[in-house]
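Mods, move this if it's the wrong board.
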Amino acid sequence: MPTKKQIPIAEMLIGRRVKVISSQNKCTVGIEGLVVNETKNTIILETKKGRKILLKNQVVLDLGGKIVSGRELIGLPHERF
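Not the wrong board. Structure tokens:
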């Protein structure tokens, strides 16, 4: 797994640009877009080709230079505080 910089787990994802740098589903590697919503187990991205739903437990994301495993993001934002 890539080395990651520490980020606050409670950090809001909605409204941020993200890129999938690693995934158990190889079809999602390289997808990038704007986070428009998140649920306990998913992140919903608006991409150039439409909305994509990513499973948090399957992805590693680049959040503008900060690398984070989706597993650390499981749960709703208010539950991560």
